[in-house]
Design brief:
With about 325 residues, this protein is of the alpha/beta class. The chain has 10 helices and 14 strands. The strands form 4 sheets. It has a 6-stranded parallel beta sheet, with helices on both faces. A 3-stranded antiparallel beta sheet has the order 6-5-7, with no helix packed on it. Helix 3 links the parallel strand 3 and strand 4. The radius of gyration is 20 Å and the shape is globular. The two termini are about 35 Å apart. About 45% of the residues are buried.
């Protein structure tokens, strides 16, 4: 099988490339670090010829640091995807497309109120966050909510620029794919961590930021109260989910959560890394960012049911491997 992997020199993409090559697949890479540009139709066309499938990983990730980041996110994520779809039409590509999406398309996670059932809280208010009221209240009665796992059919409500571009990627691929007869599988990653994580950048994942602080003798700074619930999934599992989607006998279109199914808090992550690296304990700062959501955790059962994928690497083992790679 000949597969184009965009972002194939990056964090997740390089793991996909390694797993695919280990299974004797032929890989073509489109990545800026390998002399390509995902926003260039010509670069897409050059690499699309003769491929059986596309694994589209290239993207600008993270929350961003300022409003002006919007142009970079739209260029890399929206325009880059549009360029690829245009090129697929130009070369007559009719294979399958596996897209790297994200749990950020949901916005806040799934919540239930004892009185009103499943509800959708609004955006958290700055005055609540400043006062340390981090958990969103019931939008009807103002009472406390319970966080639940998010299924794929949950309402989509992107709450920052990165999230908006990931959802637009899904919509672009679904719309053009339907016109061209291309089956599209969107994999909604939860918090991916593991060897090769980006570092020394404000766009790096929280596990990388915590680990780098500890390696340099600093306490990891944890925003809010550290009780934000997340699903941390190892990059090897995420890469394997892509391989499974690419190599099914028949494509499996649709969107699927890719997570571990094992819920931890951000504070849990910081504490585990502090212990493993024998560093200072985490510092709970109370700081907040208006684009962050409080709790977002996946229901992974659809990926197991339809793709046959289930994450295998336990949290403790993944943390130990990350620590070994950073020590």
């Amino acid at each position: 099988m000949r597969v184009l992997v965009t972002g194939g020199a990056g964090f997740i993409g390089s793991h996909i490339v390694d797993q695919m090559r280990a299974d004797d697949h032929e890989i073509v890479v489109l990545d800026r670090r390998a002399g390509g540009d995902v926003t260039s139709v010509d670069d897409w066309i050059d690499r699309l010829r003769g491929v059986d499938a596309v694994c589209h990983q290239a993207a600008r990730v993270g929350l961003g640091v300022r409003p002006s980041d919007v142009t970079g996110y739209v260029a890399d994520n929206d325009v880059g995807t549009a360029a690829g779809l245009w090129a697929m039409d130009a070369v007559g590509f009719r294979g399958r497309l596996v897209l790297a999406s994200s749990m950020v398309v949901y916005g806040e996670g799934r919540y239930s109120c004892p009185e009103h059932g499943v509800v959708r809280p609004g955006r958290r208010r700055p005055d609540d966050l400043e006062a340390g009221r981090f958990d969103p209240p019931c939008p009807t009665c103002g009472g406390p909510l319970a966080s639940e796992l998010v299924p794929e059919d949950a309402p989509l409500d992107p709450r920052n620029v990165y999230a908006a571009t990931k959802l637009h990627q899904e919509h672009l691929c679904a719309a053009v794919g339907a016109e061209l007869g291309i089956a599209v599988t969107a994999l909604r990653y939860h918090n991916v961590y593991g060897p090769g994580m980006p570092r020394d950048t404000p766009y790096a994942g929280v596990a990388s930021l915590f680990a780098d602080a500890l390696v340099n003798g600093r306490a990891p700074h944890v925003f809010e109260d550290g009780r934000q619930r997340r699903d941390f999934v190892h990059v090897t599992d995420v890469a394997r989910a892509n391989v499974v989607a690419l190599t099914q006998p028949d494509p499996v279109p649709g969107a699927f959560n890719i997570g571990s199914g094992d819920v931890h808090t951000v504070g849990d992550l910081a504490a585990a890394l502090s212990r493993a690296l024998d560093g200072p304990p985490p510092l709970i700062t109370g700081q907040w960012r208006i684009g962050d959501v409080r709790h977002i955790t996946a229901d992974p059962r659809a990926a197991e049911r339809h793709l046959g994928f289930r994450a295998e690497i336990p949290f403790a083992d993944g943390i130990a491997e990350l620590v070994s790679a950073r020590s």
